Amino acid sequence: MTESNQTLKEKFTAFINKHAEIWKFLKFTFTGASTSVLEMIVFAILQYGVFRSLNEVPVTDSPVLSFLGIEYKGYMYSYFISAVIGYAAAYIMNRKLTFKADANPVLSTILYTIMVIGTIIFNTWFGAFLGTVIQNKGYDSVFIVMLTKLVVMTVPTLWTYPLNRFVIHRKKKPTE
Fold first, then answer.
1. Integer Cα distance of 69 and 133 in angstroms
2. Cα–Cα distance between 65 and 128 in angstroms, integer?
3. What pTM was estimated for this model as a whole?
């Protein structure tokens, strides 16, 4: 029985080695799903608990936010804080588990921070903009808001996987 298990383990290892890039993407996806659950929970707590009273409070002190279509403080705060927590957890998991990066951790952290700042700005704008549309149209049910959050979280995968894989969490080239 141990021999057949070892054979199965060897077959699995050979498959992983042969399809390394697919395996990394699957791990990235799993990490993303795990940290997305964390982000969704934090968002729900903030949106329907902590900042509930601000969901109809207009952002009146910022012409920039108003220009961007962000009208309500509760949505903006909930999207921003939940995204920061989700991306921090994703950084740690992807560096350690997904890519097993050994590139300079300071440089990786700086590059990741730059990517995340851009992504959080996008997520905060896109989410708060959609939250404003939902609020103004009267579709602000928990289901619609959480579905919108899921969509907003998924869009950045278009740039976060390639940047994480090929720029931020690199492996040093083996010395020959």
1. 9
2. 10
3. 0.73
